[in-house]
Amino acid sequence: MLERKLSGWQATLLVVGAMVGSGILATPALVAASSSSATMVMLFWLGGGFYAMMGALSQAELAARYPEAGGDYVFLREAFGKLTAFLSGWVSLTVGFAGAIAGLALTCADYLARAGLPLEGYGGFVASLIIVALTAVNLLGVEKGSATQAILTVGKVVGLLVLAVVAWFGAGPARPMAAPSAPIWAALLPVIFTYSGWNDSIYLGSEIVRPRRNLPLSLIAGTAGVTLLYLLFNFAYLRVTAGSAGSGDLAAAASMAERTLGGQASLAVSVLAALMLLGTIAALVVSGPRIAWAMAQDRALPPWFGKVSRRGVPAPSLYLQAGIALAFVQIGTVEQIFSWVGFAIVVFSGLATACVFVERARGYVPKGYRIPLYPLPPLIYVAGSLAIAATVLYSNPWDTAWGVGFIVAGLPIYWLS
Q: N or C: which end of the chain has fewer CB within 10 A?
């Protein structure tokens, strides 16, 4: 069985590591293009943090109720039954974690090539090497995997803060913002997805010491810390650029760095982006296999995936996640599949949060952590998730239809298991 070896501090760093990715280097430019003032920009980011915090406050109670490996798979199983839980686990296992790892690894390889390493044309090989290396580290034990992830997380947070501080002190007088060049709704989804990952520690519920204290602490402290980090970074971005940045995947960070580093800006930002992606991949590699392990305990997957190695890690599930991620790297269709299942990921997140209503209706009385101002946090988060899902459905109905088909494709595995 899995053993409790991770502290509350390690669990918090896991949340921060999963949340802080390269999106924060680009999304501020998208938000500024949709805003008419610096105040509006900051409200966007504060609102995204508020939405994530509502989810964290809500799922913290569920995590304290069910401190088990598998996270929202377990919540959905207890509230809505095995089929709903399986469909959520199927999407998370294949796309939410393995697919995300593949996409991030390919992007990381691209940034390493931009940083001057002779890797042009070897993106698939480098991405595969990243996946294999981080999986190998995790096979040595959850402490090794967590320690590697923690080092990378601290490094990328420090790097982001250094960029903001250096750019701030190197900035000239503040300038007024330009008129909006994009509709306001264009900034909503990018901000929300930049805050994703706030619940990453719940998947290791069986391996965190004092889980009824440390799981809620990790969710709330991690989300609050990242929200503060994002607000500080955007404050510096507005101070330095007045919201004006060119197009490109690293537009915000590049425009900040150019003000102070000149010709070295591209190199510095590419290195920072690669570091941030490595930290996020490391966090996902740690947490993702616990879903397959939990599903195997319920016979929703073959029992072999529920085995634990002598080092105390779910080795077969790590192999499974790595295999799926490597397949995605070779197929090269990760972005397309993400566009298909974005709707499902949002819906299942809202549904998992709604499990708290089922638990309370059944008479569950929290003995430790209790959701403050209940039922407002879960109501706000579920309503927000439904609004986001409706937006995705309206803007991309065919992609949503394909996503539903992807979910249904998992049913034969459920019936066979």
A: N
Give per-residue pLDDT as tens, 52-80: 999 999 999 999 999 999 999 999 999 99
Burial of 39 (0-12, 13-18, 19+ CB in 10 A): exposed
Q: What mean pLDDT comes out for the span 197-203?
A: 96
Q: Residue 245: its pLDDT value, please? A: 54
Mean pLDDT of the chain: 88
Q: Look at residues 194, 250, 255 and name the one whose alpha carbon lies nearest to residue 227.
A: 194
Does residue 291 contact residue 89 with C-beta atoms inside 8 Å?
yes
**pLDDT digits 0-9 by tens, 107-141:** 899 888 888 788 888 889 999 999 999 999 999 99
Amino acid type, 367: K
Q: Which residues contact 8 (CB under 8 A, 6 or more apart)?
A: 208, 209, 210, 213, 214, 217, 218
- State the Cα–Cα distance between residues 250 and 317, nearest whole angstrom: 34
Of residues 83 and 193, more confidence is placed in 83
pLDDT of residue 37: 81
